[in-house]
Amino acid sequence: MQFHFDGFQVGDPDLASPSAKGIAREMDDARLPAYTDVLIVGCGPAGLTLAAQLSAFPDIDTCIVDQRPGPLELGQADGIACRTMEMFNAFGFAEQVLREAYWVNETTFWRPSDDAGKGIVRGGWVKDTEPGLSEFPHVILNQARVHGFYLEIMRKSPNRLAPFYAWRLAGLSISRNAGDAYPVEATFEKVGANSIETCVVKARYAVGCDGARSEVRRSLGLALQGEAANQAWGVMDVLAVTDFPDLRKKCLIRSADGGSIVLIPREGGYLSRIYVELDKLESYERASQRNITLEKIIEAAQATFAPYAFDVKDVAWWSVYEIGQRLCPRFDDVPPEAAGTQPPRVFIAGDACHTHSPKAGQGMNVSMQDAFNLGWKLAAVLRGQSDEAILSTYSAERHAIAKELIDFDREWAAMLSAPLKATPEAAEGDVTPEEIKEYFVRQGRYTAGTATTYSPSLFTGDGAHQDLAKGFVVGTRLHSAPVVRLADARPMHIGHTVTADGRWRILAFADRSDPCDPASALWDLCDYLDKDPASPVNRFTSPDSDRDSVIDVRVVFQQDHPSVPLERTHSFLMPARGKFAVQDREKIFCPAGDGQEDIFDMRGIDRDRGCLVIVRPDQYVAEILPLGAHEELAAFFARFLVDRT
Q1: Is residue 276 assigned to a domain?
Q2: Catalytic residue among 83, 160, 266, 616
Q3: Which of 37, 61, 66, 78 is labelled catalytic?
Q4: Is 248 marked active-site?
Q5: Is the distance from CB of 363 to CB of 412 less than 8 angstroms?
Q6: Residue of 183, 265, 343, 358 marked catalytic
Q7: How far apart are CA 142 and CA 564, in angstroms?
Q8: pLDDT of 617-631, one tens digit each?
Q9: CA 326 to chain CA mean position, Å
Q10: Are residues 213 and 283 in the same domain?
Q11: Hey, which of 418-427, 531-540, 573-582 has the most confident mean pLDDT?
């Protein structure tokens, strides 16, 4: 976080100076706007992630609407994957989450005792995530609290963005008139009003984050496709008195009578979330038709926990659901026959386009990643940095990821409900307790959110130079590593320089030569980026903007930081910022030192040649290039950025 470059201001540095729109909103925050750039329907994880990201841009009008009377207070999702924590850090609230959340360090597996009638016994345990997978842990924090962090970002943004609650989407239409600047028209009805109050909002783009029963999706003529597993589960957040020893560890429990429990400790030290397997459903049944009560869920849990007592003292929230994996065929309004001929205007994200069981803890995480993928693309188009043709990459990229989620969830849910084998050789049953544990470990990177890989596309290269940095895999998220900042010797992570501000990053890893030598490859790169009109920094940055406003260049030297004099580094690496043109001295890094592993070794960076790592605004590695590949670097950005010179 950088501030004060436009002058010292007292108070909370996260509270941006209000824009004209922000001032107007503070004066009248009850009226839906007649026009907006981006209309977001739904205040779930996807909608709020998108709104928070767009709120960073004062020149973008955003309107977010929800039919609920106010913010979420209880229940729903709680698992936060390592990759999601990395994203939270980009938004600036990861440290708050770490302080409040339960940290999932180990997962234990409980199975039926070998002695019939003796209940369950501990069958083994594993580390929840493999060492070194991320600098952040897998944590548990209630969804309402996550919403609160996003709402706070929005409240402090220049436009003072806030949701409009108690408005239900009644209809949505799209104009195909090429001259219509606001082609999306949405009609809302006031929820709970004594008389029918309606309001029409016209938007450049709309995003449906309105859940599995999405009205936005319905308006596009789309439907979720898939099948239910005909299995009912109960879920409850409880305070319980029990002699079960692993209450404060994540547990996967299978009992002799076929009952299953997924136990998730909650934040605060006492609360537990219990997922309880209930009855099989007939093909024509829905869980709601069974009239399943809280008492029945508690009884089923107590039976599975035997021989341990499980005395539920208080229930904060509970629900019943049925397992089903469903996927929408596309995530925008452009039909296959029109692909490439018209830009998308309406998108869907989160549960509006994919649904699944909650036991793998992926739903909220993948929904937020949907929005994180879309937000910077919308911002680039609305701010004139890219042509709107880039927006078609959202559906292409995220549909593939959602398909992987559905396939994984189907396998995992089936495994947790499958009849148990007593031994691998047993004739009866489908799966052994050991096979469940092995599958959990094998899929660890997927459940941590770090296995996502984007295929080569407009934004993702072919990885022809992957050998230069084997640990920064093209198409995957930037796997951070420790460094030290040269200017102030501050230890930090290189990945934490990628914040949710819509900018591209070039991370230049120097070769062995003296980086302050004008004959070095790094110096030559800085000369090119600084002075050549064809460099992407010069070509795609508006002359009246800071030089790093579109592409932020950072460098990592191989030398220890005490041996590098800052005053001898290239002036391009300390660009002027703000109205006073003060220098930004936070662009240069060195290996961490102090006995920590070297980033060049950790990520397999070629020390003799160095490399360029291009990072997307959503923290994914877009391409790896040689240090001297100036023309290739310019050509890569020319694929999607608009010439601003």
Answers
A1: yes
A2: 266
A3: 78
A4: no
A5: no
A6: 358
A7: 46
A8: 999 999 999 999 999
A9: 20
A10: no
A11: 531-540
